[in-house]
Every structure is written in C-alpha cells, then in structure tokens.
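Retry 2 of 3 after timeout on previous attempt. Resubmitting structure tokens to design endpoint.
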C-alpha cells in the first residue's frame, strides 16, 4: 500500500480538475505513486508515442464539473461578508459560472483571493487523498 507521503497531492488534484477534452490523460503508478502525463502524440516522455494499453499505469479520471462548482457555492455561502457572498452567489448562477466567479474574485473582491485559494486547495487535496 502506498504511503500518503509518497503522493504528490497537488499533482493528483490537478489531474482530478483537468476538464479539457484534448487527447491526453493523467496516469498514476499504483506501486510508486508517481503521476505521469500522457498524450497521444508524445506519449509519456514527451517524444515517443505509446499506447495506453502498453503501460502499467492507472488513469486518473477527472471529477465532474459539478464537484468544482459546489466548491464555489460553498465558498460563497461561508463568507462572513454578506454582500460579497451574495455577489459570488450571483456570479455562479447559470452558464459561464466558472468564468464569472473568477472575474468577480479577481476584479471586484481580490481581498478574498487568498481565502479562496486556500479553500479550493484544501478541498482538492482532500479529494486527491480520497
């Protein structure tokens, strides 16, 4: 069994949140805990294509967007500044929620950025452990 200290939780969290639809995959070696990035064009080493069936690595499937959306909703709900919380709640209503949330934070509420980054990182790392 892998020890938690052997895992790069930040890298696993990145893999779990990677929602791009390109021809790539995040993989993990179940024996060592090493995370690898594979693309159909450049394989694992960035130069030599390799078929995923030919490697002994397990895929890290991204979590669905609603998981990450819930982080935004929970953060907005937990802010002690009611006006800021309402502003962020409005930002995530409807299509384009991720972009509007980010814009609201960076442009209107930059004082909340450290708290948001810490909140999201803690949640992402917990998911990586799970």
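Retry 2 succeeded. Sequence:
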């Amino acid at each position: 069994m892998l020890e938690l200290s052997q895992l790069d939780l930040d890298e696993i969290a990145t893999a779990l949140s990677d929602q791009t639809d390109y021809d790539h995959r995040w993989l993990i070696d179940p024996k060592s805990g090493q995370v690898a990035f594979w693309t159909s064009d450049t394989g694992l080493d960035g130069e030599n294509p390799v078929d995923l069936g030919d490697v002994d690595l397990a895929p890290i499937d991204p979590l669905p967007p609603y998981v990450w959306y819930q982080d935004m909703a929970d953060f907005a709900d937990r802010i002690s500044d009611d006006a800021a919380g309402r502003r962020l709640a409005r930002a995530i209503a409807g299509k384009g929620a991720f972009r509007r949330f980010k814009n609201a934070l960076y442009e209107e509420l930059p004082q909340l950025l450290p708290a948001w980054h810490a909140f999201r990182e803690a949640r992402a790392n917990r998911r990586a452990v799970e």
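Attempt log closed. The two ends are 14 Å apart (CA to CA).
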